């Protein structure tokens, strides 16, 4: 029996809390216990212990496999595969991975609902590792493109699937910190990928494999091995989690309702699909995500190439040593902002803060001919930190404002699937022909970030207006229809948060 079931509790109807969303008050139902702040934190820590480590490990390995091509490029990939540095062959190899990402994120989330998160996510990541190894074995540009396409397919489900899974466990204002913890896994994996590339830069094996091949082979093997371990640690939906008691499940469900997340969508019929596809919040969030993720991909994919332009005579080791701290700083900033965001129960201002940092960095790079190399290097920090701050805010902003398992599954899939078009934009705007200044890439990024800021302001205004309509009872008529038990966040009692 869990500590919660053994400890004395107070029925919710016998307490008179000052706020229905405080950690002491988890339900208005007298059958669900009310926890002390310590008991509540203990329950959340239990979720963290069971859910985050395996997902973090999968995220860590997954992103390395997507962006390691940037490290491979400066270690001779283009030369050995007879690619023309002034052509768009390298950019095509970057773009093709996003075709898989865009096309398979929604189907992957749907498959999770039909099968199980553990089976789907671990199978996809294992295959991702296998095709990453394949990138180290190919002998021509066509083989590289083929391998990258399959890497995109099998990586597609991990991020939206993780967001969907965690949203079913954590209360509304506990989610941002956890998603940012996973985002930090991405930042650290970029730094680790640079360290690993640094360590194997001078490898020349007896079979003639150059160091860039070993980047793919070693990192792909790590992904496959990590996935096999993570499979035994992964959790499925809360209803089947053996490490949760019935009381704990009831408490979490009540707390989520107490935070204003009401309205189910557990039946996928024609009316439910219309509610999903016609929801303006999903499409605006998706557009914001596209505009924001371009900057993150630009740094993840091209930081080694950009830094090399600062000093074309610099060694590979020196370039890697300069790139690594950018991602370490991004990870630290992400954690700090996410903690503040959950504490203040606010997303919009923190996303705007991230976009402002990115804007400053982009303005410096657009004017890089007139500034010092040190200023340009500092600008890369601002672009990366700003992107790592704003992107997870958009994940949480969407999940916090959707309700119902199918609604969240499709919403997250659309946002992140179509959002990966930002990776295509990044890959096509930082072309070899634009070197060494990449003016088009930086200007496109600047315009997209400004567009994201405008859309975010309109998004928040729209949600504020809709809350006012619901407070006035203008949505109560929806409860009179035959789909009142499948409304999702259209339920009149749901309140949007921003």
Automatic annotation (TrEMBL):
Claim: rRNA-binding is one of the keywords in the record: no
Gene Ontology CC terms: membrane
Protein name stated in the entry: Major facilitator superfamily (MFS) profile domain-containing protein
Single GO MF annotation: transmembrane transporter activity
Membrane topology: Multi-pass membrane protein
Keywords: Membrane, Transmembrane, Transmembrane helix, Transport
Compartments where found: Membrane
The Major facilitator superfamily (MFS) profile domain, residue ranges: 51-470
Region (Disordered): 1-28
Record's compositionally biased regions (Polar residues): 16-28
Gene3D superfamilies the UniProt entry points to: MFS general substrate transporter like domains
Matches recorded under InterPro entries: MFS, MFS_dom, MFS_trans_sf
Regions that span the bilayer: 89-107, 119-138, 144-167, 179-200, 212-234, 280-299, 319-341, 348-366, 378-398, 410-430, 442-465
């Amino acid at each position: 029996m869990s500590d919660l079931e053994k400890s004395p509790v107070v029925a919710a109807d016998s307490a008179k809390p000052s706020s229905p969303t405080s950690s002491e008050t988890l339900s208005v139902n007298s059958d669900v216990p009310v926890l002390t702040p310590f008991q509540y934190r203990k329950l959340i820590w239990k979720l963290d212990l069971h859910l985050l480590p395996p997902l973090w490990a999968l995220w860590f390995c997954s992103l390395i496999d997507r962006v390691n091509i940037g490290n491979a490029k400066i270690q001779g990939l283009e030369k050995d595969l007879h690619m023309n540095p002034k052509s768009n062959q390298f950019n095509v190899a970057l773009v093709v991975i996003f075709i898989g990402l865009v096309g398979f994120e929604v189907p992957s989330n749907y498959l999770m609902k039909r099968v199980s998160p553990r089976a789907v996510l671990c199978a996809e990541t294992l295959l991702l590792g296998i095709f990453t190894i394949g990138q180290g074995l190919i002998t021509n540009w066509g083989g590289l493109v083929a391998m990258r396409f399959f890497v995109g397919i099998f990586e597609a489900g991990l991020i939206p699937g993780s967001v969907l899974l965690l949203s079913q466990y954590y209360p509304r204002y506990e989610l941002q910190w956890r998603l940012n913890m996973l985002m930090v896994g991405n930042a650290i994996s970029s730094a680790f990928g640079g360290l690993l590339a640094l360590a194997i830069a001078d490898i020349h094996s007896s079979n003639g494999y150059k160091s860039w091949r070993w980047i793919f082979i070693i990192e792909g093997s790590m992904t496959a091995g990590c996935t096999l371990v993570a499979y035994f640690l992964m959790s499925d939906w809360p209803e089947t989690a053996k490490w949760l008691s019935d009381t704990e499940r009831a408490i979490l469900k009540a707390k989520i309702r107490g935070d204003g997340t009401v309205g189910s969508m557990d039946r996928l019929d024609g009316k439910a699909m219309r509610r999903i596809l016609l929801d303006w919040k999903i499409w605006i969030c998706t557009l914001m995500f596209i505009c924001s993720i371009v900057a993150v991909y630009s740094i993840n994919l091209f930081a080694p190439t950009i830094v090399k332009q600062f000093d074309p005579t610099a060694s590979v080791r020196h370039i890697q040593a300069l790139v690594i701290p950018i991602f370490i700083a991004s990870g630290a900033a992400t954690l700090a902002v996410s903690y503040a965001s959950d504490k203040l129960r606010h997303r919009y201002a923190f996303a705007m803060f991230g976009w402002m940092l990115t804007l400053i960095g982009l303005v410096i790079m657009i004017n890089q001919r007139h500034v010092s190399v040190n200023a340009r290097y500092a600008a890369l920090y601002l672009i990366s930190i700003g992107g790592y701050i704003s992107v997870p805010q958009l994940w949480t902003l969407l999940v916090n404002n959707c309700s119902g398992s199918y609604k969240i599954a499709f919403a997250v899939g659309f946002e992140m699937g179509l959002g990966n078009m930002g990776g295509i934009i990044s890959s096509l705007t930082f072309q070899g022909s634009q070197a060494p200044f990449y003016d088009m890439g930086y200007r496109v990024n600047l315009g997209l970030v400004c567009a994201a800021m405008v859309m975010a302001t309109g998004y928040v205004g729209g949600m504020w207006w809709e809350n006012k309509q619901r407070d006035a009872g203008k949505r109560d008529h929806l409860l009179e229809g035959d789909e009142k038990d499948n409304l999702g966040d259209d339920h009149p009692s749901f309140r949007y948060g921003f």
